[in-house]
């Protein structure tokens, strides 16, 4: 009798031990599956217990994982090929368009009547528009394909913003009645790409005078270890702005659809900002649209000069 009791206890203990290890293995498998779902693991699952059914289940899951990984890798390769093909096509379009513009500008307009000159001007304008669009597509394709090369050099970001505002002041003055520039003169040196920094600022300014009205403002706020450039302008009350989609490539406001603008400028500015280690965000409130460009700067490099604040009143 005692032998049977001992055997029964032993079997129960072994059963409990087996159940404990089974539960622990099952927990480990569930944890691993969650890690796989999050993309943090690609290791095949281990068998659970001694059940043949469990082993078959694990083998099926591992086979499914293998096929999924193969599909994912193939998709990555296909996406990369498509991006490189788009970059190549965009590049191939640029050459003939540049030649077309050159030939158009070489035409002697003195021998043309006013009607022909008008038509030629329209052709030149449309060709320039297509050329700009191709340039934007080409830049985006390079960014997508990770083929975009950035060359960094020492520069003063405050001075660069000042120069861009001055360069586009005429266009700004045609769109806005009031322009307010509040930029502190700062002796700040950062390592970044001057070409790409200027392109970011240019796109923000162009977006402003293409779609804004009333007042345009640029200001600089110096914060702990960072510079904050704020570009803001009023927008027509009838314009509906989805600020959460503002940097999407396929997002266009009402005015962009009317003007034929592709709406890629803000998307390019956003992606270039990330490439340079900056942060670009946008907010909209009532009839005001604001962009914030945050640039990390080492504190020891911030040496303030005199504050220079200017305000321009334009009358049209």
Characterise the protein shown here.
By secondary structure, the chain is an alpha+beta fold. 56% of the residues lie in helices and 20% in strands. A six-stranded mixed β-sheet has the order 6-7-5-4-2-8. Helix 3 (114-144) runs parallel beside helix 8 (265-276) and helix 6 (194-211) runs antiparallel to helix 8. The radius of gyration is 31 Å and the shape is elongated. The N and C termini lie far apart (111 Å). Mean pLDDT is 78; it is low at 255-260 and 303-313.
Keywords, separated by commas or semicolons:
316 residues; alpha+beta
Low-pLDDT ranges:
255-260, 303-313
This entry's quaternary arrangement is single chain
Determine the strand fraction and express it as a percent band.
15-25%
Main sheet characteristics: 6 strands, mixed
- For the record, give the distance between the C-alpha atoms at the N and C termini, rounded to a whole number: 111 Å
- pLDDT averaged over residues: 78
Global geometry: elongated
Computed structural class:
alpha+beta
Helix amount, in percent? Answer: 55-70%
Short description:
With 316 residues, this protein is an alpha+beta fold. The protein has helices at residues 2-37, 52-106, 114-144, 157-167, 169-175, 194-211, 254-259, 265-276; strands at residues 153-155, 178-187, 190-192, 213-223, 226-234, 279-285, 288-296, 303-313. The protein contains eight helices and eight strands; from the N terminus they run H-H-H-E-H-H-E-E-H-E-E-H-H-E-E-E.
């Amino acid at each position: 009798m005692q032998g049977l009791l001992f055997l029964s206890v032993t079997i129960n203990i072994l059963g409990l031990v087996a159940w404990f290890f089974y539960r622990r293995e099952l927990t480990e498998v569930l944890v691993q599956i969650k890690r796989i779902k999050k993309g943090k693991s690609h290791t095949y699952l281990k068998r659970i217990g001694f059940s043949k059914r469990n082993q078959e289940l694990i083998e099926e899951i591992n086979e499914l994982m293998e096929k999924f990984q193969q599909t994912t890798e193939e998709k990555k390769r296909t996406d990369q090929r498509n991006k490189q093909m788009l970059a190549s096509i965009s590049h191939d379009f640029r050459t003939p368009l540049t030649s077309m513009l050159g030939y158009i500008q070489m035409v002697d307009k003195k021998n043309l009547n006013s009607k022909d000159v008008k038509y030629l001007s329209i052709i030149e304008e449309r060709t320039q528009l297509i050329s700009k669009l191709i340039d934007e597509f080409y830049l985006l394709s390079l960014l997508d394909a990770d083929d975009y090369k950035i060359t960094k050099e020492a520069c003063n970001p405050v001075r660069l913003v000042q120069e861009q505002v001055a360069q586009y002041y005429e266009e700004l003055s045609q769109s806005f009645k009031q322009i307010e520039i509040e930029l502190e003169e700062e002796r700040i040196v950062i390592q970044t790409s001057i070409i790409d920094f200027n392109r970011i600022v240019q796109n923000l300014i162009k977006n402003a005078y293409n779609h804004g009205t009333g007042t345009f403002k640029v200001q600089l706020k110096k914060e702990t270890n960072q510079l904050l450039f704020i570009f803001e302008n009023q927008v027509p009350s009838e314009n509906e702005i989805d600020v959460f989609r503002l940097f999407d490539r396929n997002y266009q406001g009402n005015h962009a659809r009317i003007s034929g603008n592709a709406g890629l400028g803000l998307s390019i500015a956003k992606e270039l900002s990330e490439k340079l280690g900056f942060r670009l965000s946008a907010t909209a409130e009532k009839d005001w649209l604001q962009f914030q460009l945050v640039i990390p700067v080492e504190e020891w490099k911030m040496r303030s000069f005199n504050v220079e604040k200017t305000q321009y009143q334009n009358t049209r």
